[in-house]
Amino acid sequence: TEVTERLEEVVKIWTKQIRQVLVESEQIRREADDVGPSAELEHWKTRMSSFNSLLDEIKSSRVKKIISILQAARSKTLKQWKELDGSITLAANEAKDNVRYLYTLDEFFGPLANASPVTMMEHIPSLMNTICMIYCTSSYYNTSEHLTSLFLKITNQMINTCKMYLCEG
């Protein structure tokens, strides 16, 4: 029982740390007012990397051994652990899915940033069709919160491009 108690303390510490990561990942992002759509992709890539690393750690043999021992001892700490494991898996899947869909927009980010306003406008219909496809097919990115953030960044990029065009002319 002494070993079980020690292992339960370890799992409690992990649980607290993982909860902190989950809470931080759900906090509102603080971004510059003029940040472009590439920042959205970078955000989800970073989040995907973080949660995949966390999943790799949770699936390591060391963690599995500790969880197995606690399962054999019928520890009550495992209920929270399983819930967190599910939350991490869900967050990792969301990030992976969002990165996959946002990569389909990546081809538009260059023209939005580097083209003249007239040339930039030629890309808008295709960009909107791609966003519509994402909205209709994505399991996670089809919320008004995500799309508002994306449209805001696209608009920021278009404004910055137009400002640069006006200042150069």
What tags apply to this protein structure?
DYH5 protein, dynein intermediate chain binding, 7 helices, 83% helix, Dynein_heavy_tail, DHC, 0% strand
Structure commentary:
The protein is mainly alpha-helical and 169 residues long. The protein has one domain (1-168). Helix content is 83%, strand content 0%. It is built from 7 helices and no strands. The longest helix is centred in the middle third of the chain and has 27 residues, at 77-103. The radius of gyration is 22 Å and the shape is elongated. The mean pLDDT is 92.
Provide a brief overview of the structure:
The protein has 169 residues and is an all-alpha fold.
**What fraction, in percent, of the residue positions are helical?**
over 70%
Task: Please state the structural category.
Answer: mainly alpha
Q: Give the ordered list of helices and strands.
A: HHHHHHH
Let me know the average pLDDT. 92
GO biological process, one term: microtubule-based movement
Pfam family, one: DHC_N1
Protein name: DYH5 protein
Domain Dynein heavy chain tail: 5-167
